[in-house]
Design goal:
The complex is a heterodimer. By secondary structure, chain A is mainly β. Chain B is built from no helices and 11 strands. Classes of the chains: A mainly beta, B mainly beta. At the A-B interface, strand 5, strand 6 and strand 10 of A face strand 4, strand 5, strand 9 and strand 10 of B.
Chain lengths: 119, 110
Amino acid sequence: EVQLVQSGAEVKKPGESLKISCKGSGYSFTSYWIGWVRQMPGKGLEWMGIIYPGDSDTRYSPSFQGQVTISADKSISTAYLQWSSLKASDTAMYYCARRDGYNGYFDYWGQGTLVTVSS
Amino acid sequence: QTVVTQEPSFSVSPGGTVTLTCGLSSGSVSTSYYPSWYQQTPGQAPRTLMYSTNTRSSGVPDRFSGSILGNKAALTITGAQADDESDYYCVLYMGSGISVFGGGTKLTVL
């Protein structure tokens, strides 16, 4: 059974750094892209970027390029989304999802990680 | 940057049929955009409904169908049920590995 399990909720202050995780199981982690999706409170889904754990090829939406870093550790089947300096506007639910193919769709989803940034 | 457009809201009667659309701020949607559709209820992770325009994801009932209608991708729900009341999002592939979500449609069944 394919599963994506995300790390728990985080409460941070503006300016702090953060790295959240998404652990895949039940499939070959290095053979599928993993993507990240943001959902701000009361708002829609936003496509942030994807990574191919097999070779760490990473693609970012122009809206998120330079704002976050996506990485992966294939030895532990885990993808990451990180911030070097959080802003209040980073407060959101973040979902990871497995992507079926380079131009494909998200077929499996994590449960989401709520990030709250507040002073 | 190209914007993916969806109706902000739609209403359908129980048992009725509704078609949600997914367009581009500039240009037409074709199968080359590999449209996919996702359903989300409050407090839940999204659920994948449809991909590659008209292929239903595993477990999705056949009252959900996908197509290209004119210059947009479309998701049609035939025989709407109360638990179809959700937010629906489309995604279009823009090239170079990048995709974009539409703004979402809030579907009310009443």
